[in-house]
């Protein structure tokens, strides 16, 4: 079965001195979603951006904001990111004490709920969440930094999650994040992914290259 693959550039690899223009450029280059990596220096060893920046970027594109929260505590910030203009809020089970409650809260805010699985976290973590969520994010690197190498063992997890999703009969997105390039993208897609995050591979070479970079991830290189 072939399903359309959505490309979500991670703005972590964009030029932070002109994020608005960078988002407009990847929008024009064919990005489907804008992937926003939120890091707190506590849950992950890096610090990026908060809701004020998300709010500032929101007018620069009508495309969905795919907000990946790598922060702990998590629940106290959900409202702020929802109000800032996130469309999907994706959370890590390890970042809070009650993942089910966190998912319910996201749904209560009227947003799409995603659950992210770290490389060491089993697909089984989703057993009692899958019926309530809209997206699964399989991390193919450990969270915290762009530019890391794709971890091959995650392909098996993508396959397991694809089966779980298909069993639900619901349209749940299966997104893969980390080390995606024109070599790893087709492998992730073959394993069942239908959305790919790409930071380094999207932004390499600057704005003149974004359209070709995104096309290459779709296999139209
Ligand atoms: C890592 C982030 C990723 C990262 C991907 O914690 O969640 O979104 O920016 O970067 P690349 O595509 O460079 O591996
Ligand atoms: Zn991410």
Instruction: Give the helix level as a range of percent.
Output: 25-40%
Gross morphology is globular
By DSSP (H or I, 4+ residues per run), the number of helices equals: 8
The CATH topology corresponds to TIM Barrel
CATH class: Alpha Beta
Number of strands: 8
Please state the CA-atom Rg, rounded to the nearest Å.
Answer: 16 Å
Which tags fit this structure?
single chain; 221 residues; alpha/beta; TIM Barrel; eight-stranded parallel β-sheet; 8 helices; 8 strands; 18% strand; globular; binds zinc ion
What would you say this structure looks like, in words?
There is one protein chain. The protein is of the alpha/beta class and 221 residues long. The chain has one domain (6-217): TIM Barrel. It is 33% helix and 18% strand. It has helices at residues 19-28, 51-57, 75-84, 99-108, 154-168, 184-191, 200-203, 210-217; strands spanning 6-9, 34-39, 65-70, 88-91, 112-117, 135-139, 173-177, 195-198. An 8-stranded parallel sheet has the order 1-8-7-6-5-4-3-2. α6 (184-191) links the parallel β7 and β8 (195-198). α2 runs parallel beside α3. The longest helix has 15 residues, at 154-168. The radius of gyration is 16 Å and the shape is globular. The mean pLDDT is 97. The structure holds D-xylitol-5-phosphate and zinc ion. Zinc ion (ZN) binds at residues 10, 35, 37, 68, 177, 197.
Strand and helix layout:
Layout: E1 6-9, H1 19-28, E2 34-39, H2 51-57, E3 65-70, H3 75-84, E4 88-91, H4 99-108, E5 112-117, E6 135-139, H5 154-168, E7 173-177, H6 184-191, E8 195-198, H7 200-203, H8 210-217
Parallel strand pairs: 1-8, 2-3, 3-4, 4-5, 5-6, 6-7, 7-8
Helix pairs in contact: 2-3
Bound molecules: D-xylitol-5-phosphate (DX5) and zinc ion (ZN).
